[in-house]
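Standup notes, structure subgroup. Blocker cleared on the adenosine-5'-diphosphate input:
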Amino acid sequence: MAPEETGRSEPTVVESTPLSVEPDPPVVPVRQTIASSLAVVDPVPSFRAELTAQLGGDASPFESVEELTSRLTGAAPVVAVLGPSCAEASALAGVAGLVARFPMVGCILVTEQVTTALLQQALRAGVRDVVGLHGGADVLAEAVQRVSATVEHAVVAAPAPQTTPDVGAPAPSVPGPDGTVEPGRGSVITLFSPKGGSGTTVLATSLAVALAERSTRPVCIVDADLQFGDVAVSLKLAPHHTIVDAVTAIDRLDAAMLESMLVTHEPSGVRVLPAPLEPAYADQVGAHDLVRIIGLLREMCEYVVVDTPSHLNDVVLSIFDESDSIELVAGLDIPSVKNLKVTLQTLRLLDIPEERLHLVLNRADSKVKLEVGEVERALQFEAHVQVPSDVVVPQSVNRGEPVVTHAPRSGVAKAVATLADQYVAPRPARSRRRR
Ligand SMILES: Nc1ncnc2c1ncn2[C@@H]1O[C@H](COP(=O)(O)OP(=O)(O)O)[C@@H](O)[C@H]1O
Ligand SMILES: [Mg+2]
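Run returned:
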């Protein structure tokens, strides 16, 4: 449909300008000064011409996603309208890389036929909207306007360029929990308790947020409690993707694609890979999938925090194998101690180096007739962090806010800060074996 037929004098985004081939000017984070550039991408000239016409002639043409990627600097927002020829696997893989590198680029796929399968594939690749080629200029204009608003918002919300996570670049060398440094790899910190309700998720989410406050590189949290994971709900997130999407695409999964599946906890910047939405999907995620996912995440993040279920299975054991540090969470109660003792024996059988194991005592000030010293003696481990019991914890959980930001002056927040500091310090303290 020609622009005039829509009855609108300006069928495209009013602010949009053709994409500049010159380096983009620095972005001034003031809403009124931002205008998205428009790009049309398709190798077929007739598709490019048709889409450019639908957009009112105000778009820069590109023959491929790669060509567009090579011309971007990432400094200005761009809405890329991808033509029907881009509706295939290799172009969509290119899109996943593009949007991971340039979060200020919003892609719309225009396709001859919108099928559920294509929609799924496109959204997984990071395309923001899919519209039909013959839907008309007004449908496309509305999609452009929507996407334009989100990419411009991303510019306003984006941190200063030097702190923007650049997942394409290798992570800098990060000290492991034993103080050793392995170049280019982030640290994997797994939290586990063999008894449900011990505070594993509370501590994992808060630790991730505390680490993000201390890091210039990305920090992410993986919810490996595949049946009843509640990391996303604890952080008040409504994710579009879960770990199941990553596993579905495991054969072609790379860092860029995985990055596009993470949801950001905006207040802290922590990237989250949520658990499946329903327990039935848990079986779809295997131990080898988790190993691959964690391997990719550690390439792009400084810290990968992993929350786990309260039982041992092959998935959890393989996560232990991948972990630089395992924080074992226990309370001052006999079942907790008994189960943790069994867990420690299992970890020893698995030859997990002892220096990777750390003990965190939660609700360590509870008056329950079991002393911290007794628990440490029974486990032959010194707790390297003791977390007090505090009503701010359930309050923060119910608000969907990590306790470190909900009640930063609380004893719980300070204990989590101590834990986080041990990872950012050059030589973190470790739980010593008690004799
Ligand atoms: N230090 C604490 N003080 C008070 N309540 C706590 C504390 N740690 C955890 N809780 C409460 O225990 C509940 C279970 O914690 P959660 O992190 O979900 O345990 P897990 O993941 O080990 O099953 C949470 O809802 C939280 O309110
Ligand atoms: Mg939990």
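Discussed briefly. The radius of gyration is 24 Å.
Next: hand off to the docking folks.
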